[in-house]
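hey can u run this one w/ iron/sulfur cluster bound, need the structure tokens asap thx
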Amino acid sequence: MNTVAIKFDAFEDLKNEECQERILRAKKALGNKIIILGHHYQNETVYRHADLTGDSLKLAKYVDQLEAKYIVFLGVHFMAEVANILSRPDQITVLPDLSAGCSMADMANLAKVERTYRELSKVLDFNQTITPITYINSAADLKAFCGEHGGIVCTSTNAPKILNWALQQKEKVLFFPDQHLGRWTGYQAGISLDEMPIWDPDLPLGGLDEKTISKAKVLLWKGHCAVHQMFRPEHIKIFRDKYPDGKVISHPESPFEVCENSDFVGSTEYILNTIKEAKPNTQWLVGTELNLVNRLADEMKAEGKLVKFMSHIVCECSTMARIDPQHLAWTLENILNDKPVNIIEVPKKEADLARLSLDRMLQVN
Ligand code: 13P
Ligand code: SF4
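ok here u go:
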């Protein structure tokens, strides 16, 4: 047995086929010592090894039922952090490539959120007036901020229920980091667009005046997902012209005009289920990440369903794609040698506060 962890260099140049064999061998040897969770955006080359798959909410909900000592997360950093926060202290969460982040999550950080808190406190009593909601696509310290300030976490599945909960607590919401999910959810709840101004964290008072802030119901953080930003109403028009009976389904991280022109809007799990449950020989235009759409398109061919990706530009989530067979094989073999690498461990104080905001979410949904 090795006394030190094997370095990634030994796996970097391995062919995918060899990695596949080594992953299967390591998984078999580890048995129920590990469980692999996989997000729907993962590439097929690793997704096939996931024991459980889902959207962010479904994966988070699995965690407290897991017996395995090692939770290997095929997804991005914030998802592994959530698994670590919700798991038992004796469990170890591993992310095969630590550079698998989320560019949207990086659009908000604690320094900016705390500055926002100070700025808003100049014009109103933040703790009495505002419930902060952080999208689960955010770092653990932002979830901790929400825990500490009576706030909550939401996902793309439960955002409507969470917004409703938040507005029952206080009169306003600060929603970060995704303006699009916040806007679409607020709009669906009957809040007008001019009651949901954009808060630019890099400008004094978010770039707003006091009157706009006092009128606002939801302050939308100026953040977005670069992948979903690519989708446009023009793509929908081209599809509808060609397939007048076709249906359009989008993720709520897509721009407002795309959601507005879609027949269905929902999380990755919702998108998968809606198309899988649809009648045979139907046509679908899908506004979400490419790996999910390609997999679904292949699976649905047998039922004569046409599943098309919304953009003509290839927009894969490049950070999700960092989890490849080489990193998975490397991670599993190190676990097999009792030398786990890429452990995700949120510091205790931060994890306890973050857990508060996650538990609030799990109680609402
Ligand atoms: P879901 O929770 O819908 O899977 O979304 C996560 C995500 O990152 C979408 O870009
Ligand atoms: Fe983040 Fe967008 Fe990738 Fe989802 S698709 S993980 S929001 S960068």
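The mean pLDDT is 97. anyway lmk if its weird
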